[in-house]
Amino acid sequence: MPEHTTPAPPTKAVSNGIAPPELDLPYPDRPEIITSNLLKLTELASDQRKRLIFKNLVTHLHQFISETGITTEEWMNTIQFLTRVGKTCTPIRQEFILLSDVLGASALVDALNHPAVGGTTESSVLGPFFTDDAPDLNAGDSIASEGSGEYLFVEGYVRSTSGNPIADALIETWETDSHGFYDTQKAIRDIPDCRGRLRTDKDGKYSYRAVVPVSYPIPADGPVGDLLQLMGRHNMRPNHLHLVIEAAGYHKLTTALYPEGDQFLASDAVFGVKKSLIVKFRDVNDEAEARRRGFPKGGSFKLLEFDIVLASKEEWSATQAQLQKQ
Ligand code: BEZ
Ligand code: FE
Question: Largest Cα–Cα distance in the chain?
């Protein structure tokens, strides 16, 4: 067995090996020269796309600093804030994603990359509560343990843009319980709850039992929570059901459905709501129907009917090609 030895520390400090650039770089003794020198340096990156990204990053960051007149104290506070964001991240908590979410960056990237085309179902933010251990369920099964909330039945069809049924599409879905918690937020999580994986049948139909989700706060006990306080913004998401749909030959869709009437729809803390994703729950007050659909306690339930339209891989590539040209 080879022995693992710790490499000896270097005896001489060395550069990264890149030679000084052959560029006209005046000494940065005026603020605007710092920006123009750095813009010249961004041209050194070998990849065209990265050159564009660095150029825009430098332009907008420097513009933000100059136009805002950021003070040294404010900039140090910003750096300390970002340091706290990094230190708050753990294997199960991603505070940087949360920061991207509340600043609208996640939703903007998603909106620009997933424009609504050809009647496809629109996308929404994934959020941090997806897990890959949701149980496989059959049509009509429940994703939620009994007592997790008010009964809800969800059903619909998955189709192509030309209306053809998509059989064997995989739907992964997750939601909060009636207290506004995902299972991963509970102190004890023996088995996954309020989440499941199911497949469409030969007609593209899917159905499952769930519970009525409730609006809930995104984590407020870290630096992102402090930022929202400073901005005078609430940290609530309107109630929703998350869905990720995958099918062979189709572009994977990450979306969420938002029942109408929630007071936080228009001011969602993470900008996930789109008009086309607002849905209506129908009240079904029919004991026999509740039992027929498998609700153990019978009584009444809410019904959500929602059809999903996926873009084929070809339609998706054509849209992306169009976006690149713009
Ligand atoms: C969510 O919907 O699960 C979520 C999305 C963004 C931030 C926090 C939560
Ligand atoms: Fe959520």
Answer: 82
Cβ of 225 closer than 6 Å to ligand 1, yes or no, is no
Task: Tell the CATH topology of 117-325.
Answer: Protocatechuate 3,4-Dioxygenase, subunit A (2.60.130)
237 close to ligand 1 (CB < 6 Angstrom):
yes
- With a CB cutoff of 8 Å and minimum separation 6, the contacts of 128 are 93, 94, 97, 98
- pLDDT tens digit sequence for 118-139: 899 999 999 989 999 999 999 9
Q: Ligand 1 pocket, 270 CB below 6 A?
A: yes
In angstroms, what is the span from residue 127 Cα to ligand 2's centroid? Answer: 6
pLDDT tens figures, 35-77 = 999 999 999 999 999 999 999 999 999 999 999 999 999 999 9
**Atom number of ligand 1 nearest to Cα 129:** 3
311, 256 Cβ separation under 8 angstroms: no
Domain boundaries, the chain: 117-325
